Amino acid sequence: MKVITIKQPFASLIAAGLKEYEFRTWKTNYRGEICIHAGKSIDKKAMKKFEKYHLEYPTGCILAKADLVDCVEIKEEERAMLRKKNSLVYSGVVEHPEWKGYGFHLENVQKVSPIFVKGKLGLWNLEK
Fold first, then answer.
1. Across residues 10-35, what is the average pLDDT?
2. What mean pLDDT do residues 48-74 have?
3. Model's pTM, two decimal places?
4. What is the Cβ-side half-sphere exposure of residue 82, based on CA atoms within 13 angstroms?
5. Running DSSP on this structure, what letter comes out for residue 122?
6. What is the pLDDT of residues 71-89, one digit of tens each?
7. Does domain 2-117 have CATH number 2.30.130.30?
8. Non-local CB neighbours of 86 within 8 Å, separated by 6+ positions
9. CA distances (Å), 60 to each of 35, 85, 112, 116, 128, in order?
10. For the segment 103-112, what is each residue's pLDDT rounded down to a tens digit?
11. 3-state helix, strand, coil in the chain (%, to 5)
């Protein structure tokens, strides 16, 4: 199964259903089931910003699975849509119009029991 490693608190925001889009500077043609892996890295500034959600932020583990249903280039129209969805969660993208990249649209997110495994760059395969 494909996996994407994401810094905390963003991995937990996805697992909690608060973040539908993950952002990258590269696009993917992959569509299908994907695991959400919380990397060892933590964005301390973002952790402070999302304190109000009172989430748990485990690291070094897969904590959810989802369906990657689309990959959209982020332009002004997408920024406006993200601003309406949740300006706090998507503030990194909507407040920086100079940022160029893609949003991986995730649906059907389901939390899973943590699977502790080392993360990797890009989309990677979980060895069973």
1. 97
2. 96
3. 0.94
4. 27
5. S
6. 999 999 999 999 999 999 9
7. yes
8. 18, 19
9. 13, 28, 14, 6, 17
10. 999 999 999 9
11. 25, 40, 35
- Going by their DSSP bridges, the two strands 123-125 and 32-42 should be labelled as unpaired
pLDDT for the residue 127: 81
Contact 106, 65 (CB under 8 A): no
Q: Torsion over CA of 46, 50, 54 and 58, rounded to 10 degrees?
A: -30
Find, among 15, 6, 21, the residue nearest to 55 by Cα. Answer: 15
- Ranges of each domain in the chain: 2-117
Task: Say whether pLDDT at 96 is over 80.
Answer: yes
The Cα 104–Cα 52 span in angstroms is 25
The DSSP code sequence of 77-97 is: HHHHHHHHHHTTTTHHHHT-T
Residue 10 and residue 105 in contact, taking contact as beta carbons nearer than 8 Å: no
Element (H, E) at 51: none
